[in-house]
Design goal:
Blueprint lengths: L5 H5 L7 H20 L5 H8 L3 H29 L1 H20 L4 H16 L2 H11 L2 H29 L8 H4 L4 H14 L13 H20 L6 H23 L7 H4 L2 H30 L5 H6 L2 H21 L1 H22 L6 H28 L6 H40 L9 H9 L1 H10 L4 H37 L3 H12 L2
Helix pairs in contact: 2-7, 2-8, 2-10, 3-21, 4-5, 4-6, 4-7, 4-11, 4-19, 5-6, 5-7, 5-10, 7-19, 8-16, 8-18, 11-12, 11-19, 14-17, 14-18, 14-19, 14-22, 16-17, 16-18, 17-18, 17-22, 18-19, 19-20, 19-22, 20-21, 21-22
Length: about 525
């Protein structure tokens, strides 16, 4: 074989049936993002149907991200070794099974389990989409393909709640179950297209998989996300145990990584500035986004009284702007490097959270809602292609699975981390605020302590109690809405702090264009 670059070895320009290949991979990303985001619009309905408290709603929403974030590194490495198309198709098939399990779940616990398993299925799909794009398309073609992949992923995040809202137009209290079946036809199409268009081999490595590091990484990420979610109900034995397991597993992962012949996440890669800055920034960008969508869907329904479909449509400015902004983002990155795109995108994200923090109150109009989502969409649309490009260009082609998994982790781990933190802050803020809000209402001193405990568990619980105590209905619902606003503001404050941190990291540590390109050239020459 000639001494050409790894990129040219894997993709002279683009693969045969390039359009079908691109559709097969983008559809997989759409399936994953729809399965991730479609649940948010159903949370109030699920809470009423299964009598689910706010802390468990957090786990239903975060469970998918938990499974995805915990498995994405390991499954990416397995795909790199044993066949990307094979792992992709297995994950897609398993996603159909877990979607059906979620749809028929009889209890909250079963639904949480189905969501976590669905995340593991996505972990076998999502990293492969980007690693195959990287392996099959040359560097010139890859930027455009990645922008389409990123735009489609962001668009699916918005389309999913709208489809979910349409399903919930039915008056049937179990209509939320149909929401989980929406992606099955798309998943079947992915299976067919993958079999027809994707090559059986596309740049896989013969290096052994670090199975020990893979198992440890699953435990570390899973226990961390679980600890944060459980902390919403206060510090308990389960929280402490999960936190201790996280610390032990994290230390074990570092030790295992140092000793492994073919480490799951080589420390030499992590030390590259373009890699670690893009990773941290991506975690904050996508984490903040997922937290905002998680809180926003409940806020518009619980506080503003939107129907599920209206709440989903309220997010449209984000989806449209994220797609629109992704196209000039590619040109900006090509001409000036990733640093300006990251800083500009983060500035828009920060502005979106500031608007949320300052204006999202009771009885507001749609204008600040739409403006917030518009700003977030612009920020993610500009910054997402930059983070994906930086992470993939910071690793050699043979380590494409590492770059792809790291790119996915920015979304998955970031989403799991921030959604867990923002959800826990929301739940804790709601519970702490409700008692004081209710105590200030006249005529509520006769409500029993047991009833008040039910009220503080979730807003849907407050609605149910209000129906049973018509004399206190107005006071209970008003107190619940004010408490939800308070919890939401605390969550949005986390988003503001995260955006400020990401801007500072990018400003001080991400290299300017000449140094950035030199880094990529050095990596490609290895």
């Amino acid at each position: 074989m000639s001494s050409t670059s790894p990129d040219s070895q894997l993709a002279a320009d683009q693969p045969p049936r390039a359009r079908l290949v691109l559709v097969a991979l983008i559809l997989g990303a759409i399936v994953t993002n729809m399965n991730l985001a479609i649940v948010n619009v159903t949370l109030p309905t699920i809470s009423a149907s299964l009598h689910t408290p706010q802390s468990s709603l957090n786990l239903i929403a975060t469970g998918f991200l938990l499974g995805l974030a915990a498995s994405v590194l390991y499954t990416g490495a397995i795909a790199d070794r044993y066949g990307r198309r094979k792992v992709y198709m297995v994950g897609t098939a398993f996603s159909i099974v877990t979607a059906i399990l979620a749809a028929i779940a009889p209890t909250t616990e079963t639904l949480i389990a189905a969501r976590i398993l669905g995340g593991f299925a996505a972990g076998a799909m999502y990293p492969v989409t980007l690693s195959m794009l990287s392996a099959l398309f040359s560097r010139e073609k890859r930027t455009g393909a990645t922008a389409l992949w990123s735009g489609a992923s962001n668009g699916a995040t918005i389309l999913a709640p709208i489809l979910g809202g349409i399903c919930l137009l039915s008056s049937n209290p179990n209509a939320w179950r149909w929401v989980f079946l929406v992606t099955i036809p798309l998943a079947l199409a992915v299976l067919v297209l993958s079999w027809i268009a994707l090559p059986a081999k596309c740049g896989e490595t013969t290096s052994p998989v670090d199975h020990r590091g893979g198992v440890i990484s699953v435990i570390a990420v899973g226990s961390l996300v679980l600890a944060i979610n459980l902390a919403a109900d206060g510090i308990s034995t389960a929280v402490i145990v999960s936190a201790v397991v996280t610390l032990i597993a994290a230390a074990a992962f570092v030790l295992s990584d140092r000793r492994a012949e073919n480490p799951l996440l080589p420390l030499s890669v992590v030390k590259v500035r373009t890699f670690w800055v893009a990773f941290v920034t991506g975690v904050i960008i996508f984490g903040g986004l997922m937290g905002a969508l998680f809180i926003g869907q409940q806020f518009t329904q619980n506080v503003l009284g939107y129907e599920p479909l209206a709440a989903a449509l309220a997010v449209l400015p984000f989806g449209l702007m994220s797609i629109i902004a992704s196209f000039p983002a590619g040109k900006l990155i090509t001409k000036h490097g990733s640093r300006p795109a990251l800083l500009l995108g983060l500035s828009f994200v920060l502005a979106g959270f500031v608007v949320m923090l300052l204006t999202w109150k009771q009885n507001i109009s749609y204008l600040p809602i739409g403006l917030s989502y518009l700003l977030l969409g612009a920020g993610v649309g500009i910054a997402a292609p930059a983070t994906a490009r930086d992470l993939m260009a910071s690793v050699t082609a043979s380590k494409g699975g590492v770059g792809s998994a790291a790119t996915d982790l920015t979304r998955d781990f970031g989403g799991a981390l921030f959604q867990s933190i923002m959800g826990a802050v929301l739940a804790a803020g709601y519970a702490a605020s409700f008692d004081s809000q209710l105590a200030a209402k006249p005529g509520t001193d006769q409500i029993t302590a047991a009833t008040k405990e039910t009220l503080t568990r979730s807003y849907s619980g407050a609605v149910e109690i209000a129906a049973n105590y018509p004399q206190y209905k107005t006071a209970i619902l008003d107190a619940g809405q004010q408490a939800f606003v308070k919890g939401s503001q605390l969550g949005f404050a986390v988003g503001v702090a995260g955006a400020l941190l990401a801007i500072a990291i990018t400003w001080f540590f991400f290299p300017r264009q000449a140094a950035e390109l030199a880094t990529y050239a050095e990596v490609a020459g290895k």
